[in-house]
Amino acid sequence: MEILIACLAVLAIALTAGALLLVFSHFFAVRKNPLAAAVRECLPGINCGACGYRGCDDYAEALAEGGVKPSLCIPGAQKAADAISTILGTEKVEVEDVVAFVACNGHCEATAQIAQYAGVQTCRAASMLFGGPNACRFGCLGLGDCAAACPSHAIDMADGIAHVNTALCLGCGLCSRTCPKQIITMLPQEAATAVMCSSKQKGAEARKACRNACIGCKKCEKVCPNGAIAVTDNLAVIDYTKCTHCGLCADACPTGCLKKVFFPDIPEDCDCKELIK
């Protein structure tokens, strides 16, 4: 009899708890906009934050509520933006394609090491020890934090620095936010010239640390016919809204830190969801 009473008591507690959970789930459930689920299917699911939201779910909710541009998902590119516009019944908006670019050409032969680092093999850990072992305090540490963060495996480490395969780059910006030196920038896909240096040291000091460094000589600034390039804090900076791709700045650069570049895009028939598997 005692065993039966105990079993009945446990059963009563279970039924009561189940009933309470049912009531709570009904009255306190978060009501989701049905459009959000459809929009979410258009997004790649990287949760990179490039759109300005915490992840794809939050961005989808914001889109479903209205007042948000459907072109903020850089990895999803034009395909995702068009699909979202169709679902929401809004006008299609053009997406600005961007790619990750490593603003450093301080490979093993160009810059020297002033110390031997034998700690945790990450850029963040190495940078916390007097800025890292390289002579240039602004250069790539080459330990691959950016490569580990890249969801499409578009970054490789070679000759002591990171290299981006822009044909695989989704433009999510995770590598840029991961780099402790902040040398990875997001450039327009159509850019034809880029500054492969991040050093803000004065000319002689920068060149002593790395032979490929920008020395702030302003030759590039003087030859640019559109005022698209200026030397700020001893470093050349390009305004891509003014650049006409003439390449005169790269031709005038005495150290070769200004390079003519070409960024091939992801093939149109390639789904970025396949790249991040």
Write a structural description.
- Helix content is about 35%, strand content about 10%.
- It is of the alpha+beta class and about 280 residues long.
- It has two domains: about 35-90, 3-methyladenine DNA Glycosylase II, Chain A, domain 3; about 100-265, Alpha-Beta Plaits, CATH 3.30.70.
- The strands form four sheets. A two-stranded antiparallel ribbon has the order 1-4. A two-stranded antiparallel ribbon has the order 2-3.
- Helix 2 crosses helix 3.
- The chain starts with a helix and ends with a helix.
- About 35% of the residues are buried.
Strand content: 5-15%
Task: Give me the count of strands.
Answer: 8
Strand order of the largest sheet: 1-4
Question: What is the CATH topology of the largest domain?
Answer: Alpha-Beta Plaits
Query: Helical amount among residues, as a percent range?
Result: 25-40%
> Any idea how many domains?
2
Q: Please give the count of helices.
A: 11
The CATH C-level class name of the largest domain: Alpha Beta
**Runs with pLDDT <50, length 5+?**
none
Coarse structural class: alpha+beta
Q: Give me the CATH architecture of the largest domain, please.
A: 2-Layer Sandwich
Helix-strand pattern:
HHHHEHHEEHEEHHEEHEH
Biggest beta sheet attributes: 2 strands, antiparallel
Mean pLDDT: 90
**What's the shape?**
flat
N-to-C span: 59 Å
Q: Taking Cα atoms only, what radius of gyration do you get, to the nearest Å?
A: 26 Å
In short:
The chain is of the alpha+beta class and 277 residues long. It is 33% helix and 12% strand. The mean pLDDT is 90.
Question: Which features characterize this protein?
Answer:
two-stranded antiparallel sheet; 8 strands; Alpha-Beta Plaits; alpha+beta; 2 domains; 277 residues
